[in-house]
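Worked Example 4.2. Consider the chain below.
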Amino acid sequence: MSAVDGLKDVRSRVDSAAREAGRQSQDVELIAVSKTFDADAIRPVLDAGQRVFGENRVQEAQGKWPGLKADYADVELHLIGPLQSNKTKEAVALFDVIQTVDREKIARAIAKEIEKQGKPMRLYVEVNTGMEPQKAGIAPDDCAAFIKLCRDELGLTVEGLMCIPPFDENPGPHFALLRKLAGENDVEKLSMGMSGDFETAIGFGATSVRVGTAIFGGR
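Applying the procedure from the previous section yields the following structure tokens:
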């Protein structure tokens, strides 16, 4: 299956899942995860009308997206992988949205760069819903205090929460927890669900789903 066929299939599945959940399909944003794929593999998907993309690594994104953004000016680029503080300058310059704000050090670095570059950034706090030691993300119990710090002290725009449930567990309870935390903290958007579970995530209120393999194929 070509990436364009994959895109059509995923869009159709997003529509069906939204309808089943009693939601409008336009309320769910599809983020095409293009990590490890080069510009030539991404262009057909851009030509098919997809405009929101996710990348995991700042350095890899720098190698392909400046040129693509020059050709497709309305592209919106999300950083969905961990951000190291020494890459903050480049991340703020290249990305429109950072979905992986997960500790005070990185929040402060982002705030500093936003001010320096004079560029507004939309941010999501990553929550480690499964409390997995090997994974990034703020602990659910620390979420409220961290969002307050970001908003009140650092003046950051936290518009959403993001999570990656443990791969060997039912994702539903993790999506439900993220939705609960969003409600408690006046956060509007939920980035949750990937190729294997995005339909479930839509049922739990996802406002964006991050889909790579189901569009581009295996890496």
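The mean pLDDT is 97. The two ends are 14 Å apart (CA to CA). Compare this with Example 4.1 before moving on.
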